[in-house]
Amino acid sequence: MASKVFSLKFFSLMISSFAIIQVTTAGDPDILSDFLTHPNVTIIDGNFFTFTGLRSLVGSDPPTTFKAFKASMAEFPALNGQSVSFAVLEYANGTINPPHTHPRSAELLFLVEGTLQVGFVDTTNKLFTQKLQEGDLFVFPKGLVHFQYNADPQNFAIAVSAFGSANPGTVSIPNTLFTTGIDDTVLAKSFKTNVATIQALKFALAPKP
Fold it and tell me: Does the domain spanning 2-170 belong to CATH 3.30.450.20?
């Protein structure tokens, strides 16, 4: 039964997402042709403009972790030059999309199911937060640090996000700081803590075999 309900919600979010994409502000440079093709594509037909990477979500079971399913230029080359991209976000109960930024686009999030605690921090270090209900929209301004958290201990949440760039980019704050080899002392001084604490954070975020 849960699978059927999830499937119906998925169809609803897909229909709603088309309206979201239409109002997302375009941010990529204009192109001087109708569309751009990929060098490896020799036949341009309807298949080139079709993305099937989200079919696995239809009728699937509710999520058990946080997952982001992207349809950006990397996954869907036909988006190149079109100034749009898309993502489906699944949040198991108690999971988080950690603080991150999209350097090339704002994000317009539509909550399809569940509740989410969301927020972003502006360049004056002011925090803007909201608890979203089903049917709510929330915009994360371009380039600002933001997050989403499903604080519900029992129920999952589903959202869709539209971007005004075919390649909005994602910069994860935890991973950028603690998994890229920045010197422990630099981080310890920056966070006014000790090297042992920094090393513990790096260990916790390191990829597990």
Answer: no
